[in-house]
Request: fold
Amino acid sequence: MYLSFSDRRGGKDDTSKRATTPFKISPIIISLGLVSLFTDISSESVNAILPLYITGALGLSMVAYGFLDGIYQGISAIVRIGAGWTADRADHHKLVAFLGYGLSAVSRAGLLVATGFGAVTSIIAVDRIGKGIRTGPRDAMITEAAQPEHLARSFGVHRMLDTVGATIGPLLAFAVLLAIPNGYHAVFVASLACGVIGLAVLGIIVPARKQRAEILAKSAPASPHQVVTEPAGRLPFRWADLNNVGMRRLLLVAAIFGLVTIGDGFIYLVLQSRASFATQWFPLLYVGTNVAYLILAIPLGRLADRWGRMRLFIVGHGALLAAYLCAALPSTGAAATLTCLLLLGVFYAATDGVLAALAGQFSTPASRASGIAAAQTVVALSRLLASVGFGVLWFSLGRQHAILLAAVALAVAIPLSVLLVRGIKLAQVTE
Reply:
């Protein structure tokens, strides 16, 4: 293994490869996208009503919601690296991902019987632990199936399908609440059904590939006189493979941004309280963001491959800063609300899949799930702290001052991150 410095596009010889290699999407990525589509219908239909369910139906404070949102954002961190390591060591990414998707599906049934804050918190924690288990192995499967020179674009295709589900989920919640006022349990039933469908697609359609075994088979000696340096059937996993300059800088920048990224639910509650529209319309705020994400996921993934993945990752947080400022404005018009939702969609399209692409780029094939999981763990932990802290700020200072303070912190984080990556060329780990 060696560390080769690359051009700004994030890959060795990217320019020549991109000029001669047409973009092709793997059926594996499409299949995983369908799994994510149904799973996101399941999770986002619940997520779209959760702020109202906690603060309205259960009558809890913003501090309680901040704690719950922190759990939602960050509890998956306790299993992400362990799940990635297990998938890498066992060379069975699909099995680990299936366990995570299954755990999330089971948690939907728990929502049907949960009545108190403690029970809801526990069930949300189980769901997010399932997400933490599945995400790293799933993204490693996407990385292995994608063309290296079109990695971010391939993630964009997956995230587009994922976001179709994330758009349908809130629409489903909206339709249910429109037909059945306070019909939260009807939303939970629909969520459970979609979660089971997604799990079935993963189990039946997505192939179970042993990536390390395939790599070794391709690199087998052409003649008996060649020396084999590794035992047959094993590609070594080494934590040291993740200790490279690109990964270190990526984790640091991701942590800084995560600490100043507040949950969408808070922003939507700000918009809802500012405009005072009826609660049944609340899920449509999620739809607005997801539609923008859906439209922009592939174009911005392609831009990341061409212009620079780290560059776009940082610029995407500029869109988040603009969304904070838009939410903090005293204006109550529809234009301001739609602009805020569009900016949030730009933020996710420019950062979500791009972060996974960067982490996969800085990892070896034998440590890819662990590398992606490490980046996602840093983000999850930092966002947990951000959500809990913002809930306290809202309770102490009020929504206006709290979101302005978050905007100031993000405005400081953006140039700081630029300085952290300046002066170094992004690197790619190569076997």
Remarks:
- The radius of gyration is 21 Å.
- The first helix runs from residue 14 to 20.
- The domain at 2-18+26-211+238-430 is CATH 1.20.1250.20 (Growth Hormone; Chain: A;).
